[in-house]
Each structure stands twice: as C-alpha cells, then as structure tokens.
Design a protein that fits this description.
Layout: E1 12-15, H1 21-33, H2 42-55, E2 64-65, E3 68-71, E4 78-90, E5 93-104, H3 108-122, H4 125-132, H5 137-146, H6 157-160, H7 174-184, E6 188-192, E7 198-203, H8 204-209, H9 214-217, H10 232-237, H11 243-246, H12 260-270, E8 274-279, E9 282-288, H13 289-297
Parallel strand pairs: 1-4, 2-5, 3-5
Antiparallel strand pairs: 4-5, 6-7, 8-9
C-alpha cells in the first residue's frame, strides 16, 4: 500500500517556529481528530506519546523522529507528519521531520513496516529535500505518490535487524575480543573478513572455554577444584590465540528476506540469542532475540 494512503493533506504540517515535542504532538493529534475519531481526549494521548518517548528515544540520526502510540478501542492506523524549520531535540538527537503514528493494539507488524519505509525515505536526500520544500500537505502527498513510496505488507529480518553490528576480524587476538566485549557491552558478534565476508560467530562462552582445560570438560562436576586458578589458561592464551581459532560456524544464518517467525524459530531451535543476516556470503546485519521482543512485542 502507498504511504500516502495513511495520510491526509490536513495531517501534514510545516512549522517555522521552535516547538516542544508536546506542542508538536498536540498539533498533530488535533489534525488527526479532524478526520478520525480517537478514543481518548487529545491531552491524554499527548501524555501517552510523551511517556512512550521517555522509555526509549524515537529519533534517528537521519533527522527523523517516529513517535508512536497504540490505543485500545481504535481499529485503524493513522499518521501525522510535521516538517520543522527548527529541529526538535530528542535527548541530543535533532529531528527535522516528526511522524506520529497511532495504531490499534494488534498492529505491531504494520507499525514496523511503516518505520522501515520512513527510515528508507529519510535516507534519500533528494526526496527529503523535495518534501521539505513542498510547503503544503497536498504537494507532499503528490511527491510521495510520484516516487511510489510503498509500505511493505510483510515484516522481515531486514526491517528490524541491526545493519551496522559490532564485528571482529578472525586474525584479532583474544585480548582484543575481550576488550571489545567489555567496552561495547556485548556477549557475542559475527566474525568477518576485511571485505565483509561472513566467517562465523564468537561469543563470551567461546572465549571463556579457552580458560578451561580439555580434561575438565569431561568431568561431571568441579566442586573439588575450589583452589584452581579460574581461567588461568585464558590469561596465558589471550595474546596468542586468535578469534579465528575459537569462532564457530554452525551454518545457521538468515537471509534478509526471512520472516520474523523464522528468525524466532531458529533462535529457539538452536538456542541462539542472535543470528547473523547473510546474503551471498556477505554480512548484512544481526538480528537478536531482544530486538525481536522489544520491537515486535513492546513497540
């Protein structure tokens, strides 16, 4: 479906004065109310949107903010769009385009597809420049139709994956891996060559395993080894062994076109908290169980 189908000319605004997010949302909700009967008073909806913003930022580095609220007793999806001459401040991220999405409780998939469409749109400087210069809602709708900006009907891994994940090279030493995990607060990551070719994955358990002698892994329990220096072998090996020596490649990757349910199935089936998204041997991103939970179920 065309993105323009979710908009009315009256729900598109251009602001030249500095506005707070609360003022922007109040204006957007007022515009939506002219065409759609919302189930709650406007001030209450503004408070709900602001509360949702407080949970996690809805702004993106491209200058786009996508606040969102799901309402009971509202069986529709509506959008209001505001172009700002003076950017709104979202905890240090400036936004020149604020797109408010109001949906019903069961529209997570549609919401995420709208977000994916808007993010792709915001990454096109030529179209964004044309939209900023349109100066009225009718012209914006015309441009969206002209460029055939469509909202996908299916949610795939490409829509919610991290397309710029933390990675490491196979020749990196274990010390580098440990430092990276500690500094970036991650427990695992893909291993790639310098050209982006996917090699496998490594996680903190692969790293810790280096510190356990092989004979200990064959024992039923290690309670009697209370005085054994923990992970002594890891300290010895961290400047000798490389990531390539401890990484695993179990052949479990996802294509960016794979469905979210397929991603969840693979994670549960193989007890993985993240899976690399790969096409033609190139790493395109990473999808994690927490991101599926956060973006699909808690968005």
């Amino acid at each position: 479906m065309l993105l323009s189908s979710y908009l009315d000319a009256d729900t598109i605004a251009f602001e030249t004065s500095l506005k707070s997010t609360a003022e922007i949302y109040a204006d957007q909700i007022g515009r939506i109310n002219r065409h759609h009967k919302l189930p709650l008073p406007s001030p209450q909806i503004v408070d709900l949107v602001l509360a949702r913003d407080a949970v996690s930022s809805t702004a993106y580095p491209s200058g786009l903010a996508i606040p969102h609220i799901r309402l009971d007793n509202f069986n529709d999806t509506v959008i209001a769009m505001t172009f700002l001459q003076n950017p709104a401040d979202y905890n240090g991220t400036p936004a020149r385009l604020v797109v408010l999405i109001i949906t019903d409780k069961s529209s997570s998939k549609l919401y995420l597809n709208l977000v994916a469409t808007l993010l792709k749109l915001s990454a096109n400087p030529d179209i964004m420049s044309q939209l900023q210069q349109a100066r009225d809602g009718g012209a914006v709708l015309g441009l969206l139709r002209k460029h055939n900006i469509c909202v996908k009907t299916e949610l795939t891994c490409s829509d919610i994956m991290d397309s710029d994940p933390i990675t490491i090279r196979p020749e990196a030493k274990l010390r580098d891996l440990g430092n990276l995990m500690n500094e970036r607060h991650v427990a695992g990551m893909p291993v790639v060559k310098s050209d982006g070719s996917y090699m496998g994955e490594v996680d903190v358990l692969n790293l810790l395993k280096v510190g356990i002698p092989d004979y200990m892994l064959m024992m039923d329990h290690l309670g009697f080894l209370g005085s054994f220096e923990p992970l002594e072998q890891l300290f010895v090996q961290e400047d000798i062994k490389t990531v390539g020596e401890i990484m695993v490649n179990d052949g479990i990757t996802l294509d960016p076109s794979a469905s979210i349910i397929e991603a969840v199935f693979e994670m549960i089936q193989h007890k993985k908290r993240f899976i690399s998204v790969v096409r033609d041997h190139k790493l395109l991103g990473v999808i994690t169980a927490m991101e599926v939970f956060r973006k699909v179920f808690k968005s």
